[in-house]
Specification:
The chain is an alpha/beta fold. The chain has three domains: 3-134, no CATH class; 141-382 and 525-541, 3-Layer(aba) Sandwich (Rossmann fold); 395-518. It has 17 helices and 17 strands. The protein has helices at 44-54, 56-64, 87-101, 114-121, 136-164, 198-201, 215-221, 239-242, 256-270, 274-292, 305-316, 357-365, 403-413, 464-470, 503-508, 518-521, 527-536; strands at residues 3-6, 19-22, 107-110, 126-127, 176-180, 205-209, 227-229, 296-301, 320-325, 351-354, 373-375, 395-398, 423-426, 441-443, 456-459, 475-478, 496-498. The strands form three sheets. It has a seven-stranded parallel beta sheet, with helices on both faces. Strands 14-13-12-15-16-17 form a six-stranded parallel beta sheet, sandwiched between helices.
């Protein structure tokens, strides 16, 4: 049959369509109340995730065509960053819509995003019975936000540079370093959120703070006498150029739909200050490397644009650079594949230190050279989990840090409370999400280790699902409507995924206890190994992770 493409505002009814679904990509990001929910196309969440699983190679091919575009090295879309860019989601919606257009049903597709709307309209079998949404309001808003965001960023950078500049005096060439973010759980007593107590274990190890760390936090951490802020090493003459720091992609020729989505990615990335801050980070780290010339440095590695530039600059001054796996790799963390480094291994760390063997295998499957992969242990998830299972315990809902996803989780679970089920709802530590408590649906602020025995854990994004899995607690991965929740579990971990429609049935089924083998996923960090790693930096001291 065909697809009828419309905006939410114009969708007064189904018309000639048999079913409908919404991309939920516009400013409202919500489904219309006017359309009958019984006629909503079923299984959209499942099919959308399947489409997202299938678009990686297409995204990579498009990213390769951006090489040479102005400021391409500052952008997230060319790195296939699924957290920092929603380009892959746009490709998935287009793929799903193309598949629906080949089916037997006539389907109404709602889309309020003007770029995605035009990309879908270019597909075979898609008809636009009404008006196409205007581009200019979104363009005007994006440009205005971009200028304001960059102006604010320049002001912050100027202040941080002035406040931190004295730190330059304490830098002597050589030595051992870690480069970290200003995490609230780090302190000036030798504990770091990313590297545990390594600063107490390795004599002479110093800490360098990323430019995302504000001055007050940097000053508190610098009280140890071994921590300095990268802001101190920036070139103040660069500040005017930060106003103009934005990726300007040239849409690829030959595919109208792809061209619209590339334009969209460029506009969205320019609507904030991410490119400006990446340029400042690259300036600071390059100047620091030329001055400090460290022997060895490690940092929480996620293969972001600034990290690729850092690896190139470190190698140019003879520094051995070690990327320590920060976020879990997972099947949707596309940017961590070595094939996304468009300059080959020049922008890869000399060594990638993995949390465990499973992560080494996943990275190897994405093209990371085996000889660079090292099993180093997990500082952030070390030790046996203190969560426990009870078939009669409450169900924990570990909310996502994305309010769009957290809202769907609470709306899906709340109607199921008070029917013999007890839900404990825990906010993400980095995102407060206000919600109304009710019978059997209560908030908890307890850490995982202090919670009562749980019968299940429902999660959407983050590592709470992995922690529960390792503790032997049945886990349900919530699949939201309108978006793919990034699956961050290793490829060998298979758990049940459910959407809002299937949640009740999944909870009615007897729980299946996971047969978790912690040793195959995560290993304990060995202090002797880490000391040798920083003392020698020699490949002979490393353990194969693949």
């Amino acid at each position: 049959m065909s697809v009828f493409l419309s905006t939410t505002r114009e969708a007064a009814g189904l018309g000639d369509a048999d079913a409908w679904f919404s991309t939920m990509t516009g400013p409202s990001a919500a489904e219309p109340a006017a359309l009958p929910r019984a006629r909503r196309l079923r299984g959209v969440s499942e099919h959308l995730e399947a489409a997202f699983d299938a678009i990686r190679d297409e995204w990579l091919a498009i990213a390769r065509k951006t090489t040479g575009d102005p400021n391409q090295e500052l952008a997230h879309m060319p790195t296939l960053s699924t957290y920092a860019s929603d380009f892959g989601m746009m490709l998935a919606w287009r793929r799903l819509t193309a598949e629906v257009a080949k089916g037997r049903e006539a389907v109404l597709v709602l889309c309020d995003d003007p770029w995605l709307f035009r990309a879908l309209a270019a597909l075979d079998g898609v008809t636009v019975p009404g008006r196409t949404p205007a581009l200019w309001p979104r363009l005007l808003g994006a440009h205005g936000r971009g200028w304001l965001a960059r102006a604010a960023a320049v002001g912050r950078v100027a202040w941080y540079w002035w406040a931190a500049r004295r730190g330059r005096r304490d830098i002597a060439p050589g030595g051992k370093w870690i480069l970290v973010y200003g995490h609230p759980e780090s302190d000036a007593e030798g504990n770091d959120a990313y590297f545990g107590d390594l600063m107490r274990q390795v004599p002479g190890l110093r800490r360098l703070l990323h430019t995302d760390c504000g001055w007050s936090r940097a000053r508190a951490l610098a009280a140890d006498g071994r921590t300095v802020s990268l802001h101190a090493f920036g070139d103040i003459r660069l500040l005017p150029a930060l106003f103009l720091a934005r990726w300007k992609p040239r849409p690829p020729a030959g595919n109208v739909g792809t061209a619209w989505l590339v334009r969209r990615a460029g506009v969205l990335e320019a609507s904030g200050a991410a490119a400006a801050m990446t340029r400042w980070q690259i300036s600071c780290q390059s100047r620091w490397l030329r001055r400090a010339r460290p022997a060895v440095i490690a940092w929480p590695w996620e293969n972001h644009p600034w990290e690729r530039a850092f690896a190139r600059a470190a190698k140019s001054v003879g520094t051995r650079c070690m990327g320590y796996q920060h976020s879990v790799v997972g099947r949707h963390m596309y940017n961590q594949g070595a094939d996304t480094n468009l300059d080959g291994d020049a922008s890869l760390p000399d060594v990638v230190l993995c949390n465990g063997r499973a992560y080494g295998r996943d990275l190897a499957a994405w093209g990371m050279p085996h000889e660079r992969l090292v099993e180093a242990g997990a500082f952030r998830l070390r030790g046996a989990s203190r969560m426990s299972f009870s078939p009669n315990g409450p169900i924990l809902i570990a909310l996502s840090n994305d309010p769009f996803l957290a809202r769907q989780m609470t709306e899906a679970a709340r109607p199921l409370a008070g029917t013999g089920r007890r839900f404990l709802v825990k906010e993400h530590p980095m995102c407060q999400f206000p919600f109304e408590e009710s019978e059997g649906f209560t908030r908890t602020e307890q850490p995982f280790a202090a919670m009562p025995p749980l019968s299940r854990v429902i999660y959407c994004t983050g590592t709470s699902g992995l922690e529960a899995y390792l503790a032997g607690i049945p886990v349900l991965r919530f699949k939201p409507a309108g978006r793919v929740a990034m699956n961050v579990l290793p490829a060998e971990v298979d758990i049940v995924s459910v959407d809002a429609e299937g949640l009740a049935a999944a909870l009615d089924r007897p729980p299946l206890l996971p047969a978790a083998n912690r040793a195959s996923l995560l290993s304990e960090p060995d202090p002797e190994f880490w000391r040798a790693l920083f003392e020698t930096g020699a490949p002979a001291a490393l353990k194969d992770a693949s």
